[in-house]
Design a protein that fits this description.
Order of helices and strands: HHHHHHEHEHEHEEHEEHHHHHHHHHH
Radius of gyration: 21 Å
Distance between the termini: 17 Å
Helix content: 55-70%
Number of strands: 7
Shape: globular
């Protein structure tokens, strides 16, 4: 497998400019030139706001040369408001994250924050450069005790419908809660991770987590390599099947790589052991293509050896066309069908979805766009959705021939 390179071919001009400004791959002179070329652009400013990168963008404008800054004077108030708004939102979410983590610690439970504020604290120079959405916490061990502790502290189920609550526990292996604080975010309490990730991942994360803190509260932080594999898989399996590209999620991976502490042999072993070498590699490829992340070349050959032929074909297309622009239906179909049925063939015609496989992967199938309007999913609907994903994969891979 060849080493990926910067590839912005599928980005809009505004997306390219934003990637240059908020990323770390461009030199200060290149960044200045981009800011001058887009001086005072409301389009670029609005894109930064939509992508939740306005705080980082505003700081990069402040760090630019006087000449580059002068072109943004007309947007000075908007930039200031964006920076202040980012900081305020992070402070509110710090309070919420701290509340949840302290409640779990007081109950004697080990809580592993997976995404959100923990990424901002560990990998970004300023926390407001990474605005979190919800908060994902893994409770390895007595999950029900963790749920009781949070409910006793004043948290509430995010969904009043008992059928929805049952669906969450049975199919998604998580419970969504709201916290008793103003402008509360959603807290997702997990006892399992992704359905296409081996169950051993939970034990691995819990066993190798290091004692630390998040939002000023005690927490068990995932080992860096575990964190990087997990976030790469999340980004790839959560990408929209249609543009626009969510730059902020790929920037997470870039900042994690640039932390400079990665044991790449261990990272590859973890991705392979968890059964997700393809999505872990796709995540890093996208980060390199968008932000020039410094991933060593030797990583690719090692992890590629653990893939089945269909997955290697998906990687080749990602190298050519952009991992950040892949259709999620295609990625998920390749992942489910190869990993669950053990095919070692180039023949897409031999791929088939069965009710048993569909039931096992119900959680991720329910996240597909085609399922969004289906309401509660019957097994028959799930099989139909999975077969549609396989059809997407067949059409997409034909472009390689």
């Amino acid at each position: 497998m060849s080493h990926p390179a910067l590839n912005h071919a599928r980005l809009s001009p505004a997306q390219r400019a934003l990637a240059e400004v908020v990323g770390d791959f461009a030199s200060p002179a290149q960044r200045d030139a981009t800011l001058r070329g887009w001086a005072g652009s409301s389009e670029l400013m609005q894109l930064a706001l939509r992508q939740h990168l306005a705080g980082r963008f505003a700081d990069r404008v402040d760090q630019a040369s006087a000449l580059s800054r002068s072109g943004w004077r007309a947007q000075e108030a908007v930039l200031g408001d964006a920076r202040c708004g980012s900081r305020i939102r992070v402070l509110k979410r710090r309070a919420q994250a701290g509340f949840a983590l302290r409640a779990l610690a007081d109950a004697g439970l080990r809580a592993n924050p997976l995404k959100g504020l923990v990424l901002a604290e560990r990998y970004y120079e300023e926390e407001h450069h990474r605005e979190m959405g919800d908060l994902d916490i893994l409770v390895a061990g007595d999950f029900d005790a963790g749920l009781r502790a949070l409910l006793a502290a004043g948290a509430a189920h995010a969904y009043a419908d008992p059928h929805k609550q049952e669906h969450e526990r049975k199919d998604a292996h998580q419970v969504a809660l709201t916290l008793p604080l103003p402008a509360s975010m959603i807290l997702e309490l997990h006892w399992r991770l992704y359905a296409d990730m081996r169950a051993s991942a939970v034990q691995d994360i819990a066993a190798h987590a290091v004692s630390g803190s998040c939002a000023g509260a005690p927490a068990w932080l995932p080992a860096h390599e575990h964190h990087l594999v997990l976030c790469a898989h999340h980004v790839v399996t959560s990408i929209s099947p249609e543009p626009p590209c969510e730059l902020r999620w790929w920037l997470d991976l870039d900042q994690m790589v640039r932390a400079g502490a990665t044991d790449w042999d261990r990272w590859a072993r973890v991705a392979i052991a968890w059964g997700i070498p393809m999505t872990a590699a796709l995540g890093l490829i996208g980060a390199v293509q968008l932000f020039g992340s410094p991933v060593p070349e030797r990583v690719w050959s090692e992890i590629e050896r653990a893939m089945v032929p269909m997955e290697r074909r998906v990687l080749r297309l990602a190298l050519r066309e952009g991992a950040y622009d892949l259709n999620r239906d295609v990625v998920m179909a390749a992942l489910w069908l190869n990993r669950t049925q053990g095919h070692r063939t180039r023949s897409v015609a031999r791929l088939a979805i069965t009710p048993r496989i569909a039931a096992k992967y119900r959680k991720d199938l329910a996240r597909l766009p085609v399922a969004a309007a289906a309401g509660y999913l019957t097994l028959q609907r799930i099989v139909r959705i999975a077969r549609a994903g396989a059809a997407h994969l067949k059409l997409w891979l034909e472009r390689e021939e």
